[in-house]
Design goal:
By secondary structure, this protein is of the alpha+beta class. The protein has 1 helix and 4 strands. Strand 3 and strand 4 form a beta hairpin. The N and C termini lie far apart (45 Å).
Length: 67
């Protein structure tokens, strides 16, 4: 039995450049809500949170924001 493919929207939390937590959702609305929740829970110096559209590889948003 194979696992279903992950969702279209990938959320990645890194700390010191290393992956700490991943999440995948099919709904962009849900993925953005999770992004906001992760920033509230995990957003601190040294952390980076990135939301990516898996189909296109486009970065939808990051925390902290790119300058």
């Amino acid at each position: 039995m194979t696992s279903p493919p992950p969702g279209r929207y990938h959320l990645l939390l890194t700390s010191a450049g290393r992956p700490v937590q991943h999440g995948w959702w099919d709904s962009e609305t849900v993925a953005h809500a999770k992004f906001t929740a992760w920033v509230g829970a995990w957003g601190r110096p040294g952390a980076r949170i990135t939301l990516t559209a898996e189909e296109t590889g486009a970065t939808l948003t990051t925390w902290p924001e790119d300058t």
